[in-house]
Structure formats: C-alpha cells, structure tokens
Write a structure and sequence with these properties.
The complex is a heterodimer of chains A (about 90) and B (about 450). Chain A is an alpha+beta fold and about 90 residues long. Chain A has helices at about 10-15, 25-45, 50-55, 60-75, and strands at about 75-85, 85-90. Chain B has 8 helices and 21 strands. Classes of the chains: A alpha+beta (about 90), B alpha/beta (about 450).
Chain lengths: ~90, ~450
C-alpha cells in the first residue's frame, strides 16, 4: 500500500518543530488584547488624555501611552486637541 | 542548509551611508559589488535620523535616494538580514562565508503591502524607533525600508496563522531556513558603522531605568516625520515636554564608562536637536549642560551661535547625576562652574543623554585583524591612507574607523572606493570583465 502523503500545513510543522507555542507568549497576547479592549471601551464615551485613561483603567500611564501609540499607528485611535499639556485621543469608529 | 556561490569584485560589509557610497562609487566605475547588511533594510543609522547638521537638510531626503540607487544599480547586489561569518584570503581573492537569516517571508513574492502587519495581534517595542513605538510580530521594518519586504519575528510569534491567511500573494514561508552563501571577492570594504553606548552605562544617570531620560537616537525618532508618536511627547505619560535638558559627554571623554575619546558629533547633534525642538515646541526651555562645545567643522560655529541666538541655554557643567521626582520628572545635579561653583538640582520634563559612539563590530569575529585600542578598525597609515587596514586589500570607511559625521563618512567612503578600485586594478583584473554577481535583495 502506498505511503500516505504528509498533508500537514507548514504552520503545523513549524508548531511541532518548536514544541508548541510558549504559554507566556499566548498569555502576553491575551493581556495585550485585554488592555486594548479596555482602552477602547473607555474611549467609547469620550476623548481622553493619557492620565485620564490611566485613572479610569487603573493601568500605569506609560503602559497606557505605549498601547495608545500602537492603536494610533494601526488606525484604531486618532489624536485630538491638546489640553493642559496632554493630547486627547479618540476612538476611530 | 541551502548553499549559494557568488563571485564579485568588491564585498562591502555594511549598508549604511558609508557602505552605500563606497558601493556606488565602485559600481559607477564598472566593478561588481555585493553589499551585505545584517539588518533587514539598508540605510544604517542615517535613515533613522531626523535632519543633518549644520544645514538641517532632511536625512531621509538624502539617504533614501542613495538606498534606491544602490538597489537599482546594475552592478550592485544587496543581501539584507545577512551576517558575515568568516573572511579569509585565498591567493588574490577573499572568500567570505555569509548566512542569510530567515525572514519567513518570500522576498520575491512580498509586495510590502503590510496586510500581514495589520492582521497580526502581537505588539512589541519597535527597535527602529528606539523601543518607543510599536511594531507587530510580522512587520515591514520602516516606511522607506529597502527592500520593502516584511519580516516575521518568530521568537515572539504565537503562530496563529493570521498573516498567512491575509497575504494576497502567498509570501509567508514558515519553513524558511538560513541560507549559506560563499562569496569570492577581489577586495573588501568594511563599513560597519557604530553603536551608541548603552543608556544604562552609568549608575549615576539612572542606568536606563528612568523613563523620561532618553538617548539622542531615540530623540531623533521623536523628531522624525514618521516617528513613534508623530510628535515630541515624553514616554512616561505622553506629556508635551516644557523643559528639556541635554547632558553632554554622556559616555564620551569618560574613563569610568571605558570611553576616553571625544565622539566628535555629540555637540553638534545636541545643538541640532535643540534647534529642531525649538521649532516643534516653541514655548519649551531647552538647556544644554556641556563641558566644552566642540564646533570644529565647516559652518559649525555659526550653527552654535545661531542656537544661542534662538534662546537655547548653554550651561557649562558636567552633570553629576540624574534622578527623578514622583511625577517622573528628571532632576539633574550640577555644579554651576561659570558662576560661584554652587551645586544645584534642576528639574526638567525630559532629559536627553548625548551618548558617545562606540564600535559596532569586532573584525576578529570574522578573522580580520584586531582593531585599534579604542575598538574601532585599525588604520595602518592614518595620515596618508586612512582607509587602509592591516589586512591588505581590506579597506575601511565611515564610523567603522572611528566617530565622524555624515559628510566625513561620505568623503571617506569615496576614498575607500578609490583605494579598493586601485587595488583591484593592481591585483586582480579589469573592472567587470571576469565576474558575475547574482542580484539578491
């Protein structure tokens, strides 16, 4: 009987070669997604500055700012007007 | 591992501005040139800078055409994301072993559309933006990268397969392997550039832990048109800085940091950045704490005087330490030398370390001669032939030989190309007659 050809997709072969995906990478991805969701939820109601977002989400300001800049780069939020030395950020619907 | 063989006239190690200029000067004379660049794009440090001093011309506007010219030159082949493992001499030729690292993206198919990047959900600090901005696990290195080809950071990828699903040309190649290449070349030009000393080099300056104490190359990105924030903001909370301090000789002329030499460019790049910040943030106070201002080049002194006239404050003081207050505002501790020598602590919104330049590469790693005591490539005849190295037929250009500014790097690259061309004529063959170089990105 002829041997069954290997039908695995390249990504499956790579996953096997790496012994699966490290748990900490998956966890980091989940946390990042949760932070972006949280920021988007708070921005649904109104434009906010970084300190305001940090206060409402309970996240440190540097973390809020870094994620916000990622969301800005990839077209999820836009920069609004400046207020007391901080820019407001608004969700792009 | 896949093996390739390339025969060429000149091997240029490093695809920064010096390497590109040397390659173009050789290629324009009819020699076949292979540029090897370890990063995923050519352009080196220069393509990440905002503007040049003292003319304030746009860096991208100078560097991008050079990159494009090298990419499209019929006599130049470029291998990016490739490392030189070993260089040895065999008769009149040099044999170099190269390893091209896998991008996990087919360079011939990828169009640089970035659909994969938008689909990816993993966000990481972007090295090109001095870790200030965000990139994805699969990304095009930067907007004017050459080649415009994506790259998968497998170490941080969760292998979700989104990139593969959205790629319109089927360019994702999860099973790509390192590719080994053996190059035979008549001459070698080393243009491996520099690194800045790490921001954690000195415990008195916060050891890289203070979020609002940045390195000068990070500020170049903040000032660049496509920078990480799109404007100048401080990283701890996105505040528009009202007061910015420059700390000169941070990792230069400092034996405690292991760098006793002057890095030659820090005074001028600090003045340039201060002038650009004056334009971007007209109400901000900019202070430069310096030991001496070394404005030695053409037009530099006038540039310095212009900066003073713009209201930039120059304070003669060596910053002893940098700490921060509860709002993460940097506090610099100085002795006011030109007044009564009192010790002061001054608060700023952001501090910039004018970091010194250190060697980016040790030639011994690939079997070439040991560097000079400062770690830069040794020049055997610095007064009459500054591009010659202890290895006959190997020439050096740009910051690989020591700190220098962009015009000096370009001049030296031209000189290295002439030396290399003369060497080729003398030792091997007539330009372009014997060799063929496969074109590779």
């Amino acid at each position: 009987m002829p041997e069954k050809p290997d039908t695995k997709k390249p990504i499956q072969i790579l996953r096997e070669r790496r012994g699966g995906v490290p748990r900490e990478l998956i966890e980091r991805n989940r946390q990042q997604a949760a932070i972006r969701r949280k920021l988007a939820e708070v921005l649904q109601s109104a434009s906010k500055t970084v300190p305001e977002l940090a206060q409402e989400t309970g996240l440190p300001t540097h973390e809020v700012f870094w994620h916000l800049m990622g969301m800005k780069k990839y077209g999820k939020v836009a920069e609004g007007k400046e207020r007391e030395g901080y820019f407001e950020y608004e969700l792009i619907q | 591992m896949h093996h390739d063989k390339i025969d060429t006239d000149a091997l240029v190690i490093g695809g920064g501005i010096a390497g590109l200029q040397a390659a173009l000067d050789l290629a324009d004379q009819g020699f076949r040139v292979l540029i090897v660049e370890k990063q995923p794009s050519i352009g080196g440090k220069m393509i990440g800078l905002s503007k040049v001093f003292p003319t304030l011309d746009c860096c991208s506007c100078i560097c991008t055409p050079r990159m494009a010219e090298a990419e499209h030159h019929p006599n130049i082949a470029i291998m990016t994301y490739t490392e030189v493992r070993h260089v040895r001499r065999e008769g009149d030729r040099f044999i170099a072993d190269l390893v091209k690292k896998p991008r996990y993206v087919d360079e011939d198919k990828c169009t640089g559309c970035r659909l994969c990047e938008y689909a990816c959900n993993t966000e990481l600090p972007h090295e090109f933006e001095g870790d200030l901005g965000v990139r994805k696990a699969i990304y095009v290195p930067f907007s004017n990268a050459v080649p415009q080809v994506a790259l998968l950071d497998l170490e941080n990828c969760i292998l979700c397969g989104r990139c593969e699903k959205v790629c319109p040309v089927g360019a994702i190649d999860f099973l790509q392997q390192p590719q080994e290449t053996v190059v035979r070349a008549g001459t070698v030009v080393v243009a491996t550039g520099y690194e800045t000393i790490r921001t954690d080099f000195k415990k008195e300056y916060g050891q890289g832990r203070l979020p609002n104490v940045l390195g000068a190359l990070q500020v170049e990105r903040l000032l660049a048109p496509h920078g990480p924030y799109g404007r100048v903001l401080r990283p701890s909370d996105g505040k528009v800085p009202d007061s910015i301090a420059y700390v000169q000789c941070a990792g230069s002329r400092d034996r405690s940091a292991g760098v006793s030499y002057c890095s030659r460019v820090c005074c001028m790049y600090a003045i340039k950045q201060a002038m650009l910040l004056c334009g971007t943030l007209p109400l901000a106070d900019i202070t430069i704490y310096y030991m001496d201002i070394r404005a030695f080049g053409k037009g530099f002194e006038q540039f310095y005087q212009n900066a003073k006239a713009m209201g930039i404050e120059f304070v003669k003081a060596k910053v002893a330490s940098i700490t921060e207050d509860q709002q993460q505002n940097p506090i610099v501790r100085i002795e006011v030398i030109e007044e009564d020598g009192r010790v002061e602590q001054r608060q700023h919104d952001m501090a910039v370390l004018s970091l010194g330049l250190v060697p980016g590469w040790d030639p011994r790693e690939v079997g070439l001669a040991a560097p000079a005591p400062d770690g830069f490539i040794r020049c055997t005849q610095p007064m009459i032939a500054p591009c010659r190295t202890p290895d006959e037929g190997v020439f050096v250009a740009g910051c690989a030989a020591g700190p220098k500014d962009i015009p000096d790097s370009i001049i030296e690259a031209g000189a290295a190309a002439m030396e290399a061309a003369a060497y080729l004529h003398e030792h091997t063959h007539v330009a372009g007659k014997e060799t063929t170089t496969t074109c590779m990105k």
